[in-house]
Structures are given as C-alpha cells and as structure tokens.
From TrEMBL:
Protein name: Mechanosensitive ion channel
PANTHER family hit by this protein: MECHANOSENSITIVE CHANNEL MSCK, POTASSIUM CHANNEL RELATED
Occurrences of domain Mechanosensitive ion channel MscS (ranges): 625-691
Membrane topology category: Multi-pass membrane protein
InterPro entries linked: LSM_dom_sf, MS_channel_C, MscS-like_channel, MscS_beta-dom_sf, MscS_channel_2nd, MscS_channel_C_sf, MscS_channel_TM-2
Recorded family membership: Belongs to the MscS (TC 1.A.23) family.
Mechanosensitive ion channel MscS C-terminal domain residues: 699-781
Keyword Membrane: yes
Annotated Gene3D superfamilies: 1.10.287.1260, 2.30.30.60, 3.30.70.100
Organism whose genome encodes this protein: Pedobacter mendelii
C-alpha cells in the first residue's frame, strides 16, 4: 500500500474516533440535561410561602456572614506585628548559638523573660486564629447547606422570586469563595505562628537548662583566684565590656518595653493622677492660715512634690511589669536614686553625706557590673575594692546609725540591715578571691541593693504617710475628714506599710541572688498541687483565696468602721445615725465576701450545705446567744432605737453610745470606761434614751425657806432670775412650785430645762448659785434643820 493510502486509512480511522467521542459527549450531555430537567421541578402554589420564608432567612444569614467576614476576621494587627516577633526570635537564636556558653545568669534571665513575653503573644495570636478558623468552618458548613438546598433550584413561575433565588445562589457562591480564601490565609498565618511558637519554646527551654547548669557550675572555680589572675587571661578590657553591656541593655529594654505599651500607658496615667492629687493638696494647704504649722509636720513633700512623686513612681512601677528584666530594673533604680538624693540630701549630717556619696558610687559600680556579659581583669579588682569599701560603709552606718539624719526619726532596722549587707559583702570577697566570679557578683550586687532598698522603702513609707496627712489637712473642713482620726490612721497604715515593705524586701533579695524562678516554681507547686481529704479534692490556692477574700472583707469592713467611726460623735456630743447604715453595709460586705470566697475557692455547694447544716446543729446547742446578738444587731440597725452619740441608760449602766457593732455595742460611761453591752440586752431590757428626740433635759433642785417668808415674792424672784440666765430654756419656762410643808421650813421645788444634757450639771449649779444670791440680796434666808 502506498504512503498516501496509509495516510487516508489513518485519516478515516481518526475521523471515526472523533465522531464516536462526540457521540458519547452528546449522549452524556443529554443524560445530564435530562437529569437536571428531572431535578428541577415546578412548585405548586402551596409551597411558595414556605420558599419565600426560607429566602428571607437565607438572605439574612448570607448578609450577616458577609458583615462578619469584613469586620470579625481582621488579622492585619497580627500580620503587622509578626515580622518583628520573628526577627526577635532569630536574633535571640543567633546570639544563643554564637555566645550561649558565654552568657551569664543575668543575660540568660533577661532573654528568658523576653522570650516568655514573645511566647505569650504568639499563644494569644494562636488562640485568636483558632477561634477564627472554628467560626469560619461553622459558617462555611451552614453556607454549604444553603447552596445544596434543592428548593433553591426549583422552577417557580414568579419572576421576582426566581430572581431572588438566583441572587441567593450567586451571593452564596461568592461568599463561599471569599470564606475559603480567608480560611486559607488564616491557616497559613496560623502555621507560621505555630512554627515560631515551637522555636520560641525550644529556645526558652534551652536557655533555662543552660541557666540551671550555670547555677550548678558557679559553685565551682570558674576563673583563676584573684591574686593569680593576669590581664592576658581576659580577651577584652573592662571599659570595652561595659560599653558592650550598656548597648545590649539598651536593646533589651527597648524590646521589653515594646511589648508592654499598655503597662507603660497605665504607669504614666497613675503617675499623672497621683502627682496632680498631691500638688492639689499642697496648694490647698499653702492657702490656709495655719499652713506653716501644717507643713512643719512633713519633710519630703515639702522638699518637692514633683520629685517625691517621681521617686514614688520609680519605686512602685517595677511591680506593674510583673517580671521585668534586670537591665530595666537598674534603669528604674537610676532615676529613683536621683530623686532620692534630692529628697534626703538636706537631712543628712556632714558625716553621713560622705557615706551617702560613697554608697551611691558603689551602687553605680555594682549595677554596671551586674549587666556585664563578659568578665574582665579590671572587674575582678573592682569587685574586691568595692567590697572592702562597702564593709567600711556598713561599719560606719552601724556606729553612727542614730546620727545619720537631721530631723528624721532613725529606723530600728538600720543595724540589722547593715549587718546583713556586711555578711553578703564578705561572701562576695571570699568568692572573688577563690575564682567564683558569678557568686561574687551576685552577693556584691545583693548587698548594695539591700542597703539602697532599705533606705528607699523607709522614705517611700514616710512619703505615703505624709501624703495621707496632707489630704486630711487639706480637706479638714469636709464632712468626710470629720470622721478621720489621723493619729490612729497613721498607726494602722504604718503597720500595713511595713508588712508590705518586708515582703518587697524579701522578694527583691530572692531576685538578686537569682532564686526568683525557684521561689515562684516552689510557691506554684505548693499552692496548686491537688490534695485530697477523704473524697474531697482541694488545693492550698483555693484555701488561700478563700482566706484572703474573707480577710479583705474584714479589712474593708474595719476601714468603714474606722473612717465613719465614733470619736467625733462621742467627744462632740453629736447624735449620728451613720453608724447604723455602716453596720448594714458591713454586714453586706461580710455576706458578699463570704459568697465570693466560696465561689472563688471552688467549694462545692453540697459541701457548703453540709457545713451550714453542721452550723445549724451548733446553733441549736450552744450558739443561741451569739445568733440572738447578731440578729439583734441587724434589728437595731433597721429600727434605730439608739444611735451613735445617744445618752442612754440600760439597767444600772449609763453613758454615751460609742459604737454599734454586729454582736455588741459600746457605751462610754461618765467615769471614762467603755461598757460592752450585747445587742440582745439592748432589745430585751428596758432602755432609756435621753437623746432620741432631742438633747434637752429637765433638771431640778429644792430649797427650804422659813414659814414667815412671802412665798409668792420668793417664787417671783426665782423666776425672774432664771429668766435672765441664757443657758436656761425659756420654753418650756422654769416651773417653781411648793413641794412640801416640812417640820421646820417650806420646801420650794424648781424645775428648769437645758438645751444640751451634757451641760445639765453645770447649768443646774449656776442656777442654784443665782437663786441663793438673789434670795440673800432680798433678805430671804434659806432654812436648814436646827442642830440638835
């Protein structure tokens, strides 16, 4: 066969194949069309209303999902911050890989803190994106149900409804495509975050492991002993090491504060409010007539309100950052030290000024040494000389502890603080001599920090008391200040401040010796480890929360009792119903505090009901009187038969109501004693209240005159004389009546009213003296029983 014949045969076969394929395609399309035709059915009129309702529901669902897709799944903030976070992780990873073994404990701790912040941010992003994915998947599943609804593809005769069905399908398909695109974008972003989160955790755990390893190794000899060390053994000089450390610390502070903008803003806001408050009080006091005597009672605020506020700010602001890096702490301490120098310099004696100057220089040296990454030959000798100087300073402080300040009370903790610092310095010198440089730095820094922190806390506590004193004096004419006894407030507040100061000192010391992580871990394990008592599971954290909330409720209750107390009412003779309202508020605080404590501690309700049942049994057997007094206290608070400042008599007891408590009340007697009366007795016994309506009281006295006396003129003389007495009330007017015809004389009884019962005795004495004087001048003698 020729080539052309072969070609024709092939062409014929190819044409047959094309026709066969086309035929099959046509048959398939016809089948598909027939299927579609079969699936699309014509709805009858009864199904149209249901379809219309479904169309409205689907339209609402699609519109709502469109709105949520535009507003609720914004990941721009995460996309904006993620590159910086990834850059931080790469920098820390590169630095750790290159200089990991050379990093000291401080630098490792700073890196772990910053990585913990990064890990927290990434975990937050991961949680947010996971929620987005979950919401999008649920929304997309609901949307697919709409798109697969066969009724949307039905043939309807109404053209408007047919258009709406078409629009739903079009809008649904577009929304479906958009949701899938957003879902892909979020999944990719979530994957990047997961990878970097895993790297952060691994890097942080490696640094923690290296830190633990260095803590173990630092007890062995790290370098040559001090007297055997040579400059050639160190690669860089002390100056170069300090320069690099300052640069690195600046970067660490910038990175750390960059992730704490909210805390920075909050700190500035608190500083502004406190500064404005103190400046306002100072201006108000300076405008008073007795401003000089008021300001004579304060020291630091008078020296400078703004500098005092700066000092206080850099004292409390580290606690707002929870776990700041050591570089940031030292930066805060630099500003705090400058403000402290300004505040205390005028109060230093000539000798203590020199001590203070040397102490400041030593603190600067130890602070710089604490942030060094590499060791240097000059650092070794600097630590030795600084340790000797610090011991001398500590001895001088002990010798002259009562002569360090002028105009300031010496602290009883000065000697103990100096001895504690000296012990640490001695350890620092010993470790430096034996080549244990890390321990030498740790104890040297801790020693100077303890001294400085002790002085700082002393000044800070004094500043708080001065600020409270300034507040009470600036608003001494206000109703609120009328209830404040500053002396008692100072005693209570000073006690709480010193407890807080001791806790701050302890935590700071633990942090200085690099045991802060150990403390937090041990504390967390102790409080959050699950324990069992029979079938009941509990943790010490839940118990601590319960006790703390109850304690806080009692503190709030006692402060309310203190601020709206009794002293002014008792001493001023004023009747006050405020205490009854305060009693109800205190009861409410206790009740709310109890239920909040139960809820916060996670105590099961069934266990609480068992406890209340046991309490009910206890009440039935032996607590009847206590419960009676408690209920009586509530009744007294509502009915108010007595109030603060009332002059009452109950049984053989009398006095002024000083306090109405939950269980008992206090009555201040005329002899100066305080009588504790159970509230049940106040309701069950006959109670005489002299001041329930007003404070007026009737007093009386008798005189005896001879039988030959003109009674009417005598009565008129007494009445006229009493009318001239301004302390005797004209209404009701004094009443002079004949009391009795005695054996030797006629008894005349005089009754008069005084405005305030606290002056009744004095007014009665004055009235009797006036009556005797006027009768003597009129020649009327007072008759007494003859002798014998």
């Amino acid at each position: 066969m020729s080539l052309i014949g072969h070609f024709k045969s092939c062409t014929r076969i190819f044409a047959i194949l094309i026709l066969t394929f086309s035929f099959h395609e046509v048959i398939a399309q016809q089948k598909k069309d027939s299927t579609i035709t079969k699936s699309v059915k014509l709805l009858d009129e009864s199904q149209i209303p249901l379809l219309v309702t479904k169309v409205e529901t689907y339209n609402f669902k699609i519109d709502r999902d469109k709105f949520l897709l535009q507003r609720s799944y914004d990941v721009s903030r995460i996309e904006k911050t993620l590159p910086d976070i990834i850059k931080k992780i790469k920098v820390f990873k590169l630095r750790f890989e290159k200089n990991g073994n050379n990093m000291n404990l401080r630098s490792l701790n700073s890196a772990v803190i910053i990585l913990a912040e990064v890990e927290e941010n990434l975990s937050g992003y991961k949680t947010t994106l996971t929620e987005y994915v979950s919401q999008l998947k649920k929304s997309n599943a609901d949307l697919n149900k709409i798109l697969n609804d066969a009724e949307l593809k039905c043939n309807v005769s109404d053209s408007t409804l047919r258009t709406q069905l078409s629009e739903i399908l079009n809008d649904g398909n577009k929304l479906n495509k958009a949701e899938r695109q957003i879902l892909i974008k979020i999944n990719l972003l979530s994957s990047r975050i997961s990878v970097n989160l895993l790297q952060t955790k691994n890097l942080s755990s490696d640094m923690v492991y290296l830190s633990i390893s260095k803590k173990i190794k630092m007890w062995s000899m790290e370098e040559a002993p001090l007297f055997k060390a040579k400059p050639s053994q160190y690669e860089t000089s002390f100056f170069e090491t300090v320069t690099k450390a300052l640069e690195r610390s600046g970067k660490i502070i910038t990175i750390f504060l960059g992730g704490k903008l909210s805390v920075v803003v909050l700190s500035i806001l608190i500083f502004s409010l406190l500064t404005s408050w103190m400046i306002s009080n100072m201006r108000r006091v300076k405008k008073m007539d007795d401003a000089e005597s008021i300001l004579a009672q304060i020291n630091f605020l008078k020296r400078g309100v703004f500098m005092s506020s700066i000092f206080a700010f850099f004292t409390y602001v580290p606690f707002l950052f929870a776990n700041p890096t050591m570089s940031l702490l030292h930066a805060f301490e630099v500003f705090r030290l400058g403000a402290l120098c300004f505040l205390i310099f005028p109060f230093l004696t000539k000798q203590s000024k020199l001590i203070w100057f040397v102490l400041v220089i030593l603190w600067v040296f130890y602070a710089l040494d604490d942030i060094l990454l590499d060791s240097a030959f000059g650092e070794r000798w600097g630590l030795f000389i600084a340790g000797i100087l610090l011991i001398v300073i500590g001895v001088k402080i002990i010798q002259t502890r009562n002569k360090l300040f002028v105009g300031l009370d010496p602290s009883p903790a000065t000697k103990a603080l100096a001895i504690f610092a000296i012990i640490q310095v001695l350890l620092s010198i010993i470790f430096n001599l034996t080549g244990r440089l890390s321990l030498a730095k740790i104890f040297g820094v801790s020693a100077v920090e303890c001294l400085m922190l002790g002085i700082t806390l002393k000044v800070f506590c004094t500043l708080v008391l001065e600020a409270v004193y300034l507040q009470t004096e600036a608003y001494q004419s206000s109703r609120f200040s009328d209830f404040i006894n500053y002396k008692e407030l100072q005693f209570r507040l000073q006690r709480y401040l010193w407890v807080i100061a001791c806790m701050v000192f302890f935590v700071s010391f633990i942090r200085n010796i690099t045991l802060y992580d150990v403390l937090t871990t041990a504390t967390s394990n102790f409080f959050y480890e699950t324990r069992s008592l029979g079938s009941y599971k509990f943790t010490f954290a839940s118990i601590a929360i319960f006790i703390c909330i109850i304690w806080l409720s009692s503190i709030i209750s006692s402060f309310i009792s203190f601020f709206f107390g009794h002293e002014k009412a008792v001493t001023g003779g004023k009747r006050s119903g405020l205490n009854s309202m305060m009693l109800l508020i205190r009861l409410a605080i206790w009740t709310i505090g109890f239920f909040i404590a139960v809820a916060a501690a996670g105590i099961p309700i069934d266990k609480l009901s068992i406890m209340l049942g046991a309490l009910g049994v206890g009440i039935g057997f032996g607590l009847q009187n206590i419960v009676n007094n408690l209920v009586s206290g509530v009744i007294i608070a509502f009915e108010r038969p007595i109030q603060i400042g009332d002059q009452i008599e109950i049984g053989t007891k009398s006095g002024i109501v000083k306090e109405i408590g939950v269980r008992s009340s206090k009555i201040h007697s005329a002899e100066g004693s305080d009588i504790i009366v159970p509230n049940g007795d106040l309701l069950s016994q006959h109670l005489i209240n002299w001041t329930m309506q007003d404070r007026s009281k009737r007093v009386e006295f008798n005189i005896s005159v001879p039988y030959e006396t003109d009674i009417e003129s005598t009565r008129k003389l007494i009445a006229d004389k009493l009318a001239k007495n301004e302390h005797v009330l004209p209404i009701p007017k004094p009443l002079i009546i004949l009391q009795d015809f005695g054996e030797y004389a006629i008894t005349i009884r005089t009754l008069l009213w005084v405005a305030d019962l606290t002056n009744a005795g004095e007014v009665r004495t004055e009235a009797m003296n006036d009556v005797k004087t006027v009768l003597t001048e009129a020649g009327i003698k007072l008759q007494v029983r003859p002798m014998g």
